[in-house]
Structures are given as C-alpha cells and as structure tokens.
Design brief:
The chain is of the alpha/beta class. The chain has 29 helices and 18 strands. Helices cover about 40% and strands about 15% of the residues.
C-alpha cells in the first residue's frame, strides 16, 4: 500500500483533530493509531514540498503527550529548534496548510506567531529556547500567573553554550519550568524503555538514590546525561565516585532530572511530564527518541535520517530533483584538493558536516576535521587557537549562523590578525526556510571588521580560485560566501583589472554595473537589455568585495553612473562601501545601490522573493535605464572624469 493510500484509508482519526482538546479525549489505543496516521500524513505531505521530515517523525508521541498534559496556548510550548514543530502544527489545527508547507502563502517550516496562538518563538537557531523559557517563567512568577513553560531541546542543541548559561540561571531562579531533552542522538536499548516509568516517579522522591546503581549502565550509554558529558562537566568537581549518579550533573545545579523515558511510549512520556509539571520547580525530562522513527528510508539514512530533504519519493525516500552540481559540492572537492597539498589546512564545522561539505574532507582526513557541535562562537575562537598553533582552519557554516559569532570573529580572530577562513554556505536569500535562515547580513555585519577580506565567487571556477586565494592569506581572516542550490555556469571574464573581473564592456562608458557574486549572470543580462536602449554598460565582478579594491574605484571614475547589485542587505553592504570609498577618493560619479532591504522577508522560493524585491534582470534593467536617461545626455570624457577624481 502506498503512503497516499495509507493516509486516505487510515486518516479518519487524524481528521477529527482540530486542536489539543481533541487529543486529550483519546484512549491509549486511539493514540497509537493517531501516531501512525500522523506519520503517514507527514511523509505524504513533506515528500511533495520538502522539509524537515526526520526530526518530526521522531517527536510524534512526545508531542502528543505534551499536548495531553499541558494546556496550550495558556501553557507555553517552546521548540528548540523550531524545525521539530510540524507535529505541534498538526495538533493545533493547521493540517490543511501542509499542502503548501514552506511555499508562498503556505505554512512556515518553523513556529510562526502569524499562523497560530499556539506559537510563540519563531526560532530556527539552536540553543535559544531555554533562555526564552527562563525569561517567560520569571515573568509569569512576577505577575502571579499559574502557567507552565515547556521547552523542547533536541537535535544537539545542548551542545551549544547558550543552553548551559540558561540552565545556570533557570536553576538559580527555581521557577516551575519543564525542559524536555529530546535525545535522538542514537537508538536506545529496551532496558531503558522498561525502566522509564518507574524512574520518573522515583527521581522526584527523596529516596531515589536507592535505585541509582540499577540504572548506572543504561544511563552511561546516553549522550546528554551519560558518561562522556558527566566526565567533562561534573567529575572534576565531585570525583569519579559520582559517576553512579549522572543525573547529578543537572541536580547539582538545582534542576531535578526525570528519565530516561522511552520517547515513543505516550503513557510513559505523559507520566513523566505530569510528575514534572506538578513538582513546582525546574525539571529536566530526558526522552530518548529515534530520528526518522517509523519510516524505513529515514531510519536507514545514516547521514542525517532525512533531516531536511527536498521533495522526495514517499515510497523510497529518494530525492526527486535531478542530481546537479551544487555550490557546496564544488567547495568540498576543492577543499580536499587543497588539503592534499597543504597538511596545515584543517576543517571545522558546527554540527553541519554534511550540509556544509566538510564531511568530504573528514572522510579523507578524519584527524584534520573538528565538529564542535552547535557552538559557532567556540568554533571561531577554537579556530583562532588552531591558527596560533600554526594551522590554517577553514570554518564552514551557513551564512546565517556566523552572525552568532561576530564578537569572536572581531576580537578573537581579526584583532590577532589570524589566518582563518570562514566559508559561508547559503549566503543571500535562500527561500523556503524563511527570514531566520536568510544569509543576507554577512557582507554588512562583517564588513566592519578591520583586516577581514570577503570574497563572493560567481561560479565554480571562481569559487575554486577564491578559496585558494583565501587560504593563501596568512595575515588575517577571510570570508568566502556563496548561495545555496545548483552552481551557476562558468562565466569567464574578458579581462582582469587588479582583482576585479570585467565581464562585459562597451565602447560607451555610461554605466558601471558592479554585480556581486551570484548576481554576475544577472548583470550580464541587464547590460544586454540596457544596450538595446542605446547605452553602454560595463559589468564587473569585484571578486573580493571587502576591502573595496582601489581598481574598482578607478573604474567607477570613468563612468557616468555606478550601479551595484548584491544579494545582501543594502545598509552597510557592498554598494554602501563602494560609495564611501568613492567619496574618500573624491570620485563624484552618482551611485545607485540595489540589494535586499533590511527587513524580515517571508518564506517562498528564491525566485519569488527576488521578484518581490525587484532584483530580476528585467527590473534592474528598467531602473538602470531610467537612471542613466535622467542624467545629462552629453557624453563624458573619461580622462576628464578621472582627472577630476584626482583633483
């Protein structure tokens, strides 16, 4: 039977769910059926749109139990990260929206206040929910409101330092707060599931110490409260003898620990959550789940359990898109080639080895790759230490996530003039994942860092070339940024002026069009359209956009109008920096900068969003033609203009 047939034949119970109150009335048998129907629904819907399927298949029973124990929206349910909130959306009346999940006019892939009163934080950056929860619990306590706050933390979020900062404050405040650790790092043994209900009640009882020896071995195999983290965070203080009680890692902070609980057993999770809710203080409920649970293709996907695929075949789990060369693939292959030549080159990633391409390097040189978990700040400063030790680290992260490490890049790396290369995947407008994932801030935010060089390749050839140039820099940090998706066809330059590539030029010098990175092809198309109106356009790719090349300023001085187009925010962007450099050089040619307004742009396809922002060839060409036609029609002597720039 196909997934679609299964959904049609067995979705009758799911069709009766319009809100959390409907789930509260169900029997244990009905809940088992509902869980199966939800999985069928998720696979059928997400296979058409793409999205985070693996994480949500793993939290079906957990989310059901949460909505049975707590009263959303009065009780606040926070998801860290929000990509594991699909089941929550289903149970809060948004089933119909899944036909257009992550598409224009459809559901967001993350919690959204605009969609439902049941959503509060719209986070998709990990390790933040506990801090939100701490503040909420304090606010409710101060206002005298009896409301529960529940934070679901999983997918490695506890590897982020912000979580531990929050835990310290949560324990100090002592307010009622339930922290659900969705531990899907590895599968659990049957013994753990069998002990779950018993341990949940015992650990909130003063006599719980009696059973610690019984569960020592089972707990030692779990990643978040087990032996490895215990040794790091607790043994130094209390001694190895306390290894029999790994829950002490949390309870030393003043936070009670409940679990481990079989996260796919609704009654067990429900019992643990009720005990935690009634305790009256901060409690951690440790639920062990399996990412991709109930869907064989996800369970068998060793890389990431179908974490966030595009559209896929529901029966096989295979992606439907025709394989193509991605920007990430080009970077990954070239990094390995460089590492073959240079033993000092090492890779760092923040829990994103496969998505950023660092996994390719790790497969060949595992000893030269460091995955630091969801800890971008630590990644940057650890890279600084590696550079101090004589290596050249390449830190590969999504562009949106490097924002979290600005201080470390500024003061720990750049101030020490250390050779660290940051490779930013998914730069610019990425589309379906929405505003928190758009990599539109990097050129503006990091453009203020002294000594930092930023490169924006336009195709695979320039990506390879600029990556090599970046790792050759030995007196400061570099950034290499590129978008998501299929890499653009190679666009060769007609000539090079310093670091600047000239892509097209005309006998007339009306417009200098500075096309940044992946907008190079758009720039060439714009030039052709404007030429039809009788104007000459020179299109250049600066390649290295920060600092602004002196050659780019010189080229600007020989044209009547300068237009920049970039896939980043206009405020403080490349256009803004070029205009300032021109003012400093007394080049008085007018500048028009086109880019992304600093705003929270809704999710949709990249093409849709760029069209909304008037960043298409047709729109840019129309604007450029209007601007140049509005200037004095008399031709300008380039030599005279250049001389004026020097005066």
């Amino acid at each position: 039977m196909s997934v679609e047939e299964g959904t049609a034949n067995h979705g009758r119970l799911l069709g009766t769910v319009h809100g959390p109150q409907d789930v509260k009335r169900m029997t244990a048998e009905q809940l088992d059926i509902l869980a199966a129907e939800i999985r069928d629904f998720l696979i059928a819907k997400v296979s058409r749109t793409g999205g985070h399927v693996g994480p949500n298949l793993g939290v079906v029973e957990l989310t059901l139990a949460m909505h049975r124990v707590f009263d959303s929206p009065r009780d606040r349910l926070l998801f860290d990260t929000g990509h594991q909130a699909y089941v929550h959306k289903i149970l809060t009346g948004r089933q119909e929206g899944f036909d257009k999940l992550r598409q224009r006019g459809g559901l967001s892939g993350y919690p959204s206040q605009a969609e439902s009163e049941h959503d509060l934080i719209e986070n998709s950056h990990a390790s933040t929910a506990l801090s939100y929860a701490d503040g909420l619990a304090k606010a409710y306590a101060l206002r005298g409101e009896k409301r529960s706050v529940v934070a679901v933390v999983g997918d490695g979020a506890l590897t982020g330092g912000m979580c531990w900062e929050a835990l310290n404050n949560i324990a100090t405040a002592g307010n009622p707060l339930v922290i659900v650790v969705n531990d899907n790092g590895r599968s659990y043994s049957p013994t753990i599931g069998g002990l779950a209900d018993h341990l949940s009640s015992l650990r909130l009882n003063p006599g719980y110490e009696k059973v610690l020896d019984t569960v020592k071995d089972a707990l030692g195999n779990t990643p978040f409260v087990g032996k490895p983290m215990y040794e790091v965070l607790h043994a130094v203080k209390k001694g190895i003898k306390d290894a029999v009680a790994p829950q002490a890692m949390f309870e030393d902070l003043g936070i009670k620990y409940v679990g481990p609980v079989d996260g796919h057993d609704v009654p067990a999770v429900e019992a643990a959550l009720r005990a935690a809710k009634n305790f009256g203080g901060p409690v951690i409920v440790h639920a062990v789940t399996r990412k991709g649970y109930g869907y064989r293709p996800a369970e068998d996907d060793e890389a990431d359990c179908l974490h966030g695929p595009g559209a896929f075949d529901a029966e096989t789990g295979k992606l439907l898109a025709v394989p193509s060369v991605k920007w990430t693939n080009v970077f990954a292959d070239e990094l390995v080639a460089i590492a073959d030549e240079r033993p000092d080159v090492v890779g760092i990633t923040a829990a994103m080895a496969e998505p950023t391409g660092i996994a390719t390097l790790a497969r060949k040189y595992p000893e030269r790759v460091y995955d630091v978990g969801i800890a971008e700040q630590h990644a940057a400063t650890s890279a600084a230490g590696l550079a101090m030790g004589g290596l050249h680290p390449v830190v590969a992260v999504y562009a949106t996530f490097l924002n979290r490490a600005f201080d470390q890049v500024l003061l720990d790396v750049a101030m020490h003039k250390l050779p660290v290369t940051f490779v930013l995947d998914r730069a610019g407008i990425t589309g379906p994942d929405g505003p928190s994932h758009y990599g539109i801030w990097d050129m503006s935010v990091f453009g203020v860092v002294p000594g930092l060089r930023i490169a924006a390749p336009r195709d695979s050839a320039t990506l390879r070339e600029e990556l090599r140039e970046a790792v050759a820099v030995d007196d400061g940090p570099t950034i290499l940024r590129f978008p998501t998706g299929t890499v653009a066809a190679d666009l060769p330059a007609v000539r090079r002026v310093g670091p600047v590539d000239v892509l097209t030029e005309s006998a007339r010098t009306d417009v200098l069009l500075v096309a940044v990175g992946s907008f190079a092809g758009l720039g060439v198309e714009v030039a052709a359209r404007v030429a039809e109106q009788g104007y000459g356009v020179t299109v250049v790719d600066p390649r290295w956009v920060r600092p602004v090349p002196a050659e780019l300023v010189e080229l600007a001085s020989t044209h009547r109008l300068v237009v920049t187009v970039e896939d980043g925010v206009r405020i403080g962007g490349v256009g803004s920096a070029l205009a300032q450099a021109m003012r400093d050089a007394d080049v008085r040619v007018p500048v028009k900068d086109m880019g992304v307004p600093a705003d929270w742009h809704p999710h949709g396809s990249r093409a849709q969003i760029l069209a909304d922002l008037r960043l298409t060839a047709q729109d840019v060409a129309r604007d450029v033609t209007g601007w140049i036609s509005g200037l004095d029609a008399a031709p300008v002597d380039p030599a005279a203009n250049g001389a004026r720039a020097q005066s």
